[in-house]
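Suppose you are handed a protein chain with no further information: no name, no annotation, nothing but its sequence. What can you learn? This example shows the usual starting point.
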Amino acid sequence: MPLFIVALGVVLLIVLISVFKMNTFVSLLIISFIASLALGVPMEKTVLTIESGIGGTLGHIALIFGLGAMLGKLIADSGGAKRIALTLIHKFGEKRIQWAVVVSSFIVGVAMFFEVGLVLLIPIVFSIEKELKVSPLYLGIPMLSALLATHAFLPPHPGPTVIAGEYGADIGTVLLYGIIVAIPSVILAGPIFTKFAKKIVPNAFTKDCNISSLGEQKVLKLEETPAFGISLLTAIFPVILMLLATILSIIKNTAGMPDSFFFKVVNLIGNPSTAMLISLLLAFYTMGIRRNIPIKQVMAACSSSIASIGMMLLIIGGGGAFKQVLIAGGVGDYIALLFQGSSMSPILLAWIVAAILRVSLGSATVAALSTAGLVIPMLAASHVNLALVTLATGAGSAIASHVNDAGFWMVKEYFGLSLKETFATWTLLSTIVSVSGLLFILLLSLFV
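A reasonable first move is to predict its three-dimensional structure. Written in structure tokens, the prediction is:
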């Protein structure tokens, strides 16, 4: 019965969002109330459960999410991302142009959310394809694979950051393992898949890009942008701090060293919230003050970045409410009971549940959060690596992007594709990232 109620709730959520065109946050709240009552959560505790779900989720990630949005906005507005992309493309050369796009998209993808990175990089890709006379998709597929993989696997992106918090996984470890999993997944879904996509839908590679869909773009001459080195350092600085803290922590634990003042300082600096704050302060200088941009203008850019993610934060909170209702209603315990004695790994279960919810709901973040409510009770009785379960949830939530996902329509419109061509390229690409990600996670589980 609990699983039937969850399935009914998911179907109703899809109907509200897709058929009645209701706001996703409002839809999640409605379903949370209905599911709470249907699952037998006492009426007097229903609102408290929903509030604790929203508060518990946003309390963990709002700071990282907000600081990350500001950092990405400053790098984008200053032209730092453009400098990174164009410099790498020049260094790699025409013959290895796809790899240049992969590397630059991966770096930009670490610092920026999927949609922001896509809007930022697409004009660069379009200008390169015209200069080199290659298909927009020839460069677009590697770019999309890198942006999607960073979105699914790497903090400070909302999915892996939120899920790490829900599972109690160390974010630095998630980042380290996420990079190990993301790199081969991007290679498979990017340059390698492009060769097969050309054979599956050759006509898609003859299409011209839809420049008008980008709207009015802020154009900066290359000489007006920050230098490559400082742009790169600013973009990946939070990653450097988090990885440094994680590696030093691994060395300390392996060597059995005491928890000295030095390691306490390292852990503080490597904490995602601290790392993002330090990186933002660095960006204030490198992307603003150092370039003689008034601090008032820098702060205005930060304010506009927060305004743009307000609804996204509410949707994440709504996903947290639904997750908490599933936990309070005993759905996770019920699933744990069903799988009692089962040899199925929590890693595989997390991927399967996230994949089903992703295909049903469209939102990768909502799918990942809902998965947490079902999987958390199983983790208590398991000795599985929590960082790997976090990555498996992220991998499942990336699968089969289709018509209920905003990313699907963005790719379709930007590259001027038909529905069939979008399914054969973008939907297939997202599935390759998801499945290959799972395989690499399972492989990694043999060693960590």
